[in-house]
């Protein structure tokens, strides 16, 4: 995509602040009684890819809307390229590209026409524009479909054309709101590859909201897990997954012995057994016929677990420790109390 960048619009660079985004104590209340964000502090380093993860309603999109200067904080501060996006809305928006969850293409136009129209709205210079539009769409795999109406595109093609439109202004910061929702696995994979290219290869900073933990693990340098408008965990995906550690054990046994095995292992584990800050499920679970999973059990507990099983007359065929994943941490963190019932920090 580097060859298309030479035709970029002459926007004065945003400066070299190390953190492209700095959010401090951001709280957002919507009347009458919704607290969408509750004291969120977050920095996004230049060139990094940060994923915002969380259930529906956790506050992810509300963060993006503050970054784009579309919402005013109830409390706290937001800085993008060192400036307040409310005060310097046009300046900030000129340097960021937002792919919202909603459609941004006119279905009646072709992809090429959509980008030409956007270029006029953004007042981009016409010199080299046609080559840039064709180059962007080609780079995003739409080279042979440029002149087809968007209404005939698949969901994956529409998302790629939308990304091309967002990249038209050569933004330094990309805000992507669940870009691969509703895409099939192949289209998701393709879009992910393209996001990786425009972020890591081209050095853009990216904030991406996603429900897809595999996507977060594959794309993000840092993952921020939100629950009820607060950050509950933050770190790089591998580091976060390792917090869960080898705290689960999978036991293969005779399916006829499942009930006895559940009874024999029921007292193992317990709240907090998964490590500091976690309160995950600890009851034994059947993962499939003859496959029992014990959460909150470490390697050191295995001999005692086996003794219990043998005493209960259970035939054990195999015991495997299970490495923690980002998904384990996410599920563990979200097993916490519902909004409004949690303890205040
Ligand atoms: N304009 C608004 N008026 C009232 N409540 C709002 C408004 N915008 C968002 N909310 C509420 O704020 C909370 C956070 O919403 P937000 O859209 O940020 O969540 P999200 O994490 O992006 O969820 P999703 O994954 O469903 O997109 C929700 O309870 C939502 O209903």
Automatic annotation (TrEMBL):
Q: Which Pfam families match?
A: ABC_tran (PF00005)
Query: Which GO-annotated molecular functions does the record name?
Result: ATP binding; ATP hydrolysis activity
* Occurrences of domain ABC transporter (ranges): 21-253
Ranges of compositional bias, category Gly residues:
269-278
Q: Where is this region: Disordered?
A: 266-289
Per UniProt, the keywords (alphabetical) are: ATP-binding, Nucleotide-binding, Transport
Q: Which domain of life is it from?
A: Bacteria
Question: What family does this belong to?
Answer: Belongs to the ABC transporter superfamily.
PANTHER family reported in the protein's UniProt record: ABC TRANSPORTER RELATED, ABC TRANSPORTER, ATP-BINDING PROTEIN
Q: What is this protein called?
A: ABC transporter ATP-binding protein
Q: Origin organism of this chain?
A: Georgenia yuyongxinii
């Amino acid at each position: 995509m580097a060859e298309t960048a030479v035709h970029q619009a002459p926007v004065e660079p945003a400066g070299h602040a190390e953190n492209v985004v700095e959010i401090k104590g951001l709280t957002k209340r919507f009347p009458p009684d919704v607290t969408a964000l509750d004291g969120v502090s977050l920095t996004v380093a230049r060139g990094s890819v940060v994923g915002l993860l969380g259930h529906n309603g956790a506050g992810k999109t509300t963060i993006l809307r503050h970054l784009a200067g579309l919402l005013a904080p109830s409390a706290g501060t937001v800085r993008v390229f060192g400036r307040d996006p409310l005060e310097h809305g046009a300046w900030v928006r000129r340097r960021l590209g937002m792919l919202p969850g909603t459609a941004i293409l006119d279905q009646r136009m072709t992809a090429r026409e959509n980008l030409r129209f956007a270029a006029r709205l953004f007042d981009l210079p016409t010199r080299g524009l046609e080559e840039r539009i064709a180059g962007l769409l080609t780079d995003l795999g739409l080279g042979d479909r440029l002149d087809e109406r968007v209404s005939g595109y698949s969901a994956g093609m529409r998302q790629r054309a939308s990304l091309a439109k967002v990249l038209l202004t050569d933004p330094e910061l990309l805000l992507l709101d669940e870009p691969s929702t509703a895409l099939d696995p192949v289209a998701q994979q393709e879009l992910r590859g393209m996001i990786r290219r425009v972020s890591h290869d081209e050095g853009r900073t990216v904030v991406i909201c996603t429900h897809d933990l595999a996507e977060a693990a594959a794309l993000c340098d840092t993952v921020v897990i939100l629950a009820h408008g607060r950050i509950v965990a933050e770190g790089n995906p591998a580091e976060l997954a390792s917090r869960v550690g080898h705290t689960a054990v999978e036991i293969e046994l005779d399916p006829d012995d499942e009930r006895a095995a559940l009874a024999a292992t029921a007292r193992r584990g317990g709240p907090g057994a998964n490590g500091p800050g976690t309160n995950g499920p600890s009851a034994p679970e059947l993962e499939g016929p003859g496959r029992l999973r014990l959460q909150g059990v470490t390697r050191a507990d295995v001999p005692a677990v086996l003794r219990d099983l043998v005493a209960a007359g259970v035939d054990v065929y195999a015991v495997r420790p299970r490495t923690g994943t980002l998904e384990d941490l996410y599920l563990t963190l979200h097993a916490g109390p519902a909004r409004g019932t949690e303890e205040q920090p």
